[in-house]
Amino acid sequence: MPSLDTAYWYAHPAARTWQTAAPDSAASFHRTLTGYAPTPLTELPSLAAELGVGRVFLKDESNRLGLPAFKILGASWAVCRALSARYGLDAETMSVPALRDYLRAGTTPHERPVLVTATDGNHGRAVSRMAALLGLEARIYVPNGLSPAAVDAIRGEGAELHHVDAIYDDVVAVAAASTEGSSCDLLIQDTSWAGYTDVPRWIVDGYATLFDEIDEALTQSGYAGADLVACPVGVGSLAHALVDHYRTPGNAAPSLLSVEPETAACVAQSLLAGRPVVVDTSYPSIMSGLNCGTPSEMGWPALLAGMDAAVSVTEENCRQAVMDLTDLGQDVGPCGAASLAGVRAALSRPERRQQMGLDETSVIVLVSTEGLAANPLR
Length: 378
Prior knowledge:
Blueprint: E1 9-11, H1 27-31, E2 41-43, H2 45-51, E3 55-60, H3 72-87, H4 96-106, E4 114-118, H5 122-134, E5 137-142, H6 148-156, E6 160-163, H7 168-178, E7 185-187, H8 198-220, E8 228-232, H9 237-246, E9 255-261, H10 266-273, H11 300-306, E10 309-313, H12 315-327, H13 334-346, H14 350-355, E11 363-368
Parallel strand pairs: 3-11, 4-5, 4-7, 5-6, 8-9, 8-11, 9-10
Antiparallel strand pairs: 1-10, 2-3
Helix pairs in contact: 3-5, 3-8, 5-6, 8-9, 9-11, 12-13
């Protein structure tokens, strides 16, 4: 196995005592979506033996509502909320078919919204899928380094694709600027900045369904909850949902571990610095969906207060994790496999185990955010 030495390690065990208000739930809305079902939580005993813990489970997001990644949870809820807000509709009772019928009856083709976003892959495809379901157009901006398979998948949803010769953070700015002055364009971006917080908040709320499903599956298997939940991190929106869910009063308080590429560890470096840090992401990564250089402004306070561990992983260790999970029959792409690579690095030293409160009886959940089809190894 490759060396598990890591460039960035952060630990703040007191974060387990911090609490925040419960997020708004999108679970009822998700249950109205055609094809909705909780994704599997699969036990992997061989990994538990390797890591020296009681149980290891993998949250498998290789097929979420027909897409090979979890992003549709946030995109669907945010699109529904944003369109309902634009037209004065009740988002709490809105469904995709009802919203589509409203748009067809109440707007002409030239008046209908165009969904716009920047993406490093899966978010853009999810927004494009929502546009197709609603009979709308989508305009998607992508950065350098996105795999041909990811580009083709977005185009396959019927979206208008724009390549921008820049890193992801700069492409976000291009996409946002493209909507200025347009009465039709509707920006559905999964990161926040000053003056742009509603849509990112709805995306975070949508992601929380994933963690509700984990808790329900563990309960059904006879476990009180996880002792560690490991989560891949890009700008930090999924990690924000993780913190909001597990730091709610009355909920379990497991250790929470964020995992990033060493070349794009903006959250780990920010946590170590105690302030948001922007990192250079011009070096490509097989974890393309995590190749983000700026933490979400809205999510940063929750990450600082409630995330008690963060680690970065190498390309080699992530690639090994993909292959090892494949050998175990799990369909996991590089971003999803980062969780395993991160837990291996985090548990490689006794002091880190102690900081996270783990022992030989601990229950670990690896959040796998995508299947291999979403981001093939290159």
